[in-house]
Amino acid sequence: MKKIIAAAVVAAASFGLVTGASAGTLDNVKAKGQLVCGANPGTAGFGVPDEKGNWTGLDVEYCRAIAAAIFNDPTKVKFVPLSSKDRFTALASGEVDVLVRNSTWTMSRETTLGVIWAGINFYDGQGFMVNKKLGVKSASELDGASICVQQGTTTELNLADYFRSTGKKYQVVTFGTSEEALKAYDTGRCDAYTTDRSGLAADRLSMAKPDDNVILPEVISKEPLGPLVRQGDDQWLNLVKWVHFALLIAEEDGITQANVDEKVKSDDPEIKRILGTDGKFGESLGLSNAWVVQIVKAVGNYGEMFERNVGPKTPLQLARASNALWNKGGLQYAPPIR
Amino acid sequence: MSTQAIPRHESPKVVFYNDPKIRSLFFQFILLAAVIALFWFAYDNTLANLKKRNIAQGFGFWNVEAGFDISQTLISYSAASTYGRAFLVGLLNTLLVSGLSIFFATVIGVIIGVLRLSKNWVVSRLAGFYIELFRNIPLLLVLYFWYGAVLSSLPEPRDSIAIPGDIWLNSRGLLVPRPVILDQFWLVGWSIVLALGVAVAITRYARRRQAETGRRLPAGWLSTLVMIGLPLIVYFAAGQPLGLDLPVKGRFNINGGLNLAPELVAMVVGLSTYTAAFIAEAVRAGVVAVSKGQTEAAHSLGLTDGQTLRLVIMPQALRVIVPPLNSEFLSLTKNSSLGVSIGYPDLVNVFTGTVLNQTGQAVEMVSVTMLVYLSFSLLTSAFMNWFNTRVALVER
Could you say which residues of chain B have pLDDT below 50? Predict the structure, then answer.
């Protein structure tokens, strides 16, 4: 798969005509009748297909929200599971329209990969998971440990930085996919497994005995995760960006899946703008003016998505913390629709 | 003989565009030009497309700091080293695992191939079972199996199995004392070279003596004695210039020493057991291809079974065995790129994996990697072709 994609991108880059990269992604998506979304092959709470093949998770619902905004139908999405290693190539080569796959926003990725982030849908940080019986309470005790890690991630670099800056020794064992890395950790190849803490919470659940494993308190990096698109198509970038903002604004203004039909009748000028009863904000994105209504009806607002997929009542039990709205002590902040 | 000039046979004059020679040259030139144009178009278009999509390009990455670590490094390497260095580390790891696997695959393959021809029904069937089993399982599964088997059967580091001689065995690998070369070691190195030269000379002399007088020398034994004895004497005479870095038990792992990681062991075991099945078939085919009359003729000349195999059967069988062996070695080297699935840091894992992902320069990375495997294959082929001409039937 990896090689096929790599070969495909070489072939595409070599023989594809210069078509202006991705101009008109929205038109393409409308013509295809579905959104092609690069997804995580299996991280509980973010992107994972259930036993019936239905994709669920916070990142998955972002794709559904975009589909709802375009087609008024959250099911018009085709999910393409991608490994960390393949994801950017798949996006740059046009195999997927948007990538929502726990991808960390970094400067080098945006300046050298031909991709651009549309926002941050989850503020995360890298952590460590260890087996309880090692008796390790803190990452500072990991001197001399073997650590399993997945390839093609910022994780690999942060790990090296962390041990370089603390002057400790470690041995890294790098695997092609997170499943392989996790399995090796589970069979005792490594003392610790490292990835983003949201990923750790999800991976811990997928293990044979989740309770035998503990996530250490240290956060060793900033991992702003979010949806990204190809460079060179500002209309499409705007659309993805504003779907994200709309989800945040809907939460801020108390527009939920349950009350959105009520809210449409509201006289509040701000809510009228958001829900499209006033102004032509949707049309300016190439959508219908009721785009936010369509989104919220399909997936709810950001807060609802968070609670449903990763929140305290889910097996992942993640607190809102940095992902709370700006006026509730978090970092999630959206510019106004006006 | 008359001096009269014989009229030269003149070919009928043709217009140049009907001259078959010129025509063929013309069309070959057109084809060549078309191929070059195609490649140029591909190259130019790639650059244009990458530029258009704001994707980095060029080979400026070699000197950029890598920033990631690699589990197995044959040369000194740290996160502060360059991508170029990381490339070398991956390259050497690929060479190491391929070299070791080619050696073991050949040994196992020849043994299994000979056993397959055994007159003992049970032995022959067991060898047949081995061949059919490994030939019909995807290599990736074989690797997963060995990696899982190696990992799950071994204890955790804190319960390491201690083997006398400061050797430890656990799920992190086999830790053995690492030889540390001290100052005077070059003497030992030269003594090995010298011993090798002496051994060659002994073998040559023995051969000549046998040709001239018909009497044989135990050349094999003599050479072995020189090869082992001379370096040993020099080693002790130079004051044992070899230190040992012993593995020491730490909190998580055993530190120091030389660690044969489970990834390396699983790769070598997986690749060699898998490829051995194919080599065994090549060996069997080669031996069967030598007609039975050759054995009978050798026996009637009074050669023993061992001599018959060594002097009559094998030289003829090798002619059939070597060409398919070449393909097996090539496949093995290329198959070593599956290492990434069990965490072995080979070229594809390190370079086409991590480095590609950090730099995002898929076109450059994939091209370089393809070039490397192509060179490996061509070099292996060149060597095997040379070997093949040596064993080939000399027709007089």
Answer: 1
Residues A144 and A7 in one domain: no
Give chain B's domain count. Answer: 1
Query: Which chain A positions have a beta carbon within 8 Å of B67's beta carbon?
Result: 157, 160-161
Residue A145 contacts B where some CB pair is shorter than 8 Å: yes
The whole-angstrom distance between residue A245's C-alpha and the CA centroid of its chain comes to 15
- The residue behind tokens 């046979």 is B9
- B contacts of A20 (beta carbons < 8 Å): 52
pLDDT at residue A21, rounded to an integer: 44
pLDDT, position A18: 45
Q: How many helices (H) and strands (E) does chain B have?
A: 13, 8
Q: Are residues A119 and A135 in the same domain?
A: no
Q: Is residue B139 part of a domain?
A: yes
**Which are the contacts of B97, defined by CB distance < 8 A and separation ≥ 6?**
B264, B267, B268, B271, B336, B339, B344, B346
Question: Is B194 part of any domain?
Answer: no
Shortest alpha-carbon distance between residue B394 and chain A (Å): 44
pLDDT value at position B396? 57
Closest to A196 (Cα-Cα) out of A238, A235, A226: A226
Q: What CATH number does residue A290 fall under?
A: 3.40.190.10
The CA-atom distances, in angstroms, between B107 and each of B111, B279, B283 are 6, 9, 11
The DSSP symbol for A315 reads: T
* Beta carbons of A145 and B48 less than 8 Å apart: no
pLDDT the model gives residue A9: 55
Domain boundary among A221, A250, A279: A221
Tell me the chain B residues in contact with residue A169 when contact means C-beta distances shorter than 8 Å: 255
Same-domain status, A96 and A144: no
Question: Considering only residues 77 to 116 of chain A, which have any Cβ-Cβ distance to chain B shorter than 8 Å?
Answer: 84-85, 88-89, 92, 108-109, 111-114
- Name every chain B residue with its beta carbon within 8 A of the beta carbon of A145: 252-253
Of B53, B70, B367, the CB nearest to A21: B53
Tell me whether residue B136 is in a domain. Answer: yes
Structural domain harbouring B116? 83-156+264-391
A168 touches chain B (CB under 8 A): no
Task: Give the model's pLDDT for residue A285.
Answer: 93
Question: For chain B, first and last CA: distance in Å?
Answer: 38
Within-domain flag for A287: yes
Query: How high is the pLDDT of residue B332?
Result: 94
Whether B79 and A145 lie within 8 Å, measured CB to CB? no
| CATH at residue B92 | 1.10.3720.10
A333 within a domain of the structure (yes/no) = no
How far apart are alpha carbons A122 and B65 in whole angstroms?
29
Are A156 and A235 in a shared domain? no
Q: What is the mean pLDDT of each run of 10 residues along chain A (338 residues)?
A: 55 52 80 94 88 90 96 95 87 93 92 93 95 89 90 88 91 88 89 92 88 92 95 94 96 95 93 93 94 96 95 92 94 94
When divided into structural domains, chain A yields a total of 2
Q: Are B363 and A10 a contacting pair at CB < 8 A?
A: yes
